[in-house]
Amino acid sequence: MYVRYKKWLMVLLSAMTLSACSTADVSIYANNTPKFELQSFFSGQLRAHGILKNRSGEVIRYFNATLDGSWENGVGTLAEVFVFDDGEIQNRTWTLTPNTDGQYIATANDVVGSGEVRIAGNALFMKYVLQVPYDGDIIEVTVDDRMYMVKDGVVINESVMTKFGFEVGYLSIVIEKV
Questions:
Q1: pLDDT in tens, 131-165
Q2: Are 147 and 128 in contact (CB under 8 A)?
């Protein structure tokens, strides 16, 4: 019995190790255009449309959102209002603070700690721990956001949500300047 659990544990650890090694670095997009200018794109009014998929890839919710971005002394504020198909409304306000290496640290009202924003070329990557409502409770999931500017004023955002290293959900969002 012990041998079977040991084998299962080794398979699990190997799978987690392999999946951790397969992440692309944002720097591979350094030469892509149009260039993702964080302060320019997330300034003023934006709108977003997206879907949420469960771990099986089935669309379980869709939403529309309004975003309002402003900057003062290099620090950005991005207020988001999400309206889901079932009528639920979620609000999130991001604060984007420049750090010493020219990138940004992101915090929000429902984010545990902070997220590190990395930008290169037309891409923006951010990873953070988000508190989300689930079955009448709040759970924490790790979100790996990948945003790509596909033309001036339009960004496609793909996110993978994980819990204990396992993928539990996926977001696809189109964000556009108004």
A1: 998 889 999 999 999 999 999 999 999 999 999 99
A2: no
pLDDT of residue 17: 46
- What is the structure's pLDDT at 102? 82
Distances (CA, A) of 165 to 3, 9, 35, 114, 133: 23, 14, 32, 19, 19
Whole-angstrom CA distances from 74 to 39, 43, 124 are: 8, 12, 18
Find, among 150, 178, 141, the residue nearest to 52 by Cα. 141
In angstroms, the CA 131 to CA 72 distance is 27
The residues, ordered by sequence, that sit 6+ positions from 162 with a Cβ below 8 Å of its Cβ are 141, 142, 144, 168
Amino acid at 75: V
